[in-house]
Write a structure and sequence with these properties.
- By secondary structure, the protein is α/β, with parallel strands linked by helices.
- The chain folds into two domains: 5-16 and 86-218, HAD superfamily/HAD-like (Rossmann fold, 3-Layer(aba) Sandwich); 18-84, DNA polymerase, domain 1, CATH 1.10.150.
- It has helices at residues 18-31, 38-45, 54-61, 67-84, 91-102, 114-123, 127-130, 148-157, 171-180, 194-200, 212-218; strands spanning 5-8, 106-110, 134-136, 164-168, 183-187, 204-206.
- Strands 3-2-1-4-5-6 form a six-stranded parallel β-sheet, sandwiched between helices.
- The longest helix is centred in the middle third of the chain and has 18 residues, at 67-84.
């Protein structure tokens, strides 16, 4: 295996948070005047911060995106995550395998706020594997699709980005990993999502987190690699 460090996105890669988070967001946007199906909400916001879409939200609701609105969203979101969140199937074993493969040189690098990251990793029992190597795009000059969060993670692990493998699941995150100079493998359980992930620059696609330990141990890229 040629990678010296493995950098994981969080939402949709390690934890099955997207339907929960976007369900809360969809409901709060509906209360503000922008009602839409959950699938449409996820198309607009998955892989992006809510604040980065402030202009769109304000245009559709006719209301400013205030700090109070965001605080209410965070509180409602976190309550639902504490009640319903589960790890992605195969993710705990993949994290353990990555830790063993790299001698502990793994990190979680997400566009989410730190409070959400801490909650999710602790709730699913993954926090100890990452230790202090948890990075939030909210705390950097730019979040995904810019490379800042992945560059920060690679620097903290003292591994050149070109020697890092990034595990992502959205076009926005893939663009961030590619821009950082890393190799990006994209989790793609739904084949219809493959064209967008490839267009974003993913070097390979794989169907389930449970596949990763076998691929790493065999020193192979996923079979869908270009």
């Amino acid at each position: 295996m040629r990678f010296e460090a493995i950098l994981f996105d969080c939402d949709g890669v390690l934890v099955d948070s997207e339907p929960i988070t976007h369900g809360v967001l969809r409901q709060q946007l509906a209360e503000s005047g922008w009602d839409m199906p959950l699938a449409e909400c996820m198309r607009h916001f998955m892989g992006r911060t809510v604040r980065s879409q402030a202009a769109l939200i304000e245009a559709r609701t006719g209301r400013p995106l205030t700090d109070a609105w965001m605080a209410r969203f965070y509180a409602r979101r976190d309550a639902q995550l504490r009640q319903h969140l589960q790890p992605i199937d195969g993710a705990p074993d993949a994290v353990r395998a990555a830790h063993a493969l790299t001698g502990g040189r793994i990190a979680c690098a997400s566009g989410a706020d730190r409070g959400k990251l801490v909650l999710q990793l602790a709730h699913t029992g993954l926090a100890d594997w990452f230790g202090r190597h948890v990075f939030s795009g909210h705390e950097l000059p730019r979040s995904k699709p810019f490379p800042d969060v992945y560059l920060a993670a690679a620097a903290a692990l003292a591994v050149p980005p070109a020697r890092c493998l990034v595990i992502e699941d959205t076009p926005t995150g893939i663009q961030a990993g590619v821009a950082a100079g890393a190799t990006v493998w994209a989790l793609c359980p739904q084949p219809e999502a493959a064209p967008a992930l490839r267009e974003a620059g993913a070097h390979a696609l794989f169907g389930a987190m449970a596949e990763l330990p076998r691929l790493w141990r065999a020193g192979q890229a996923p079979a869908w690699a270009e």
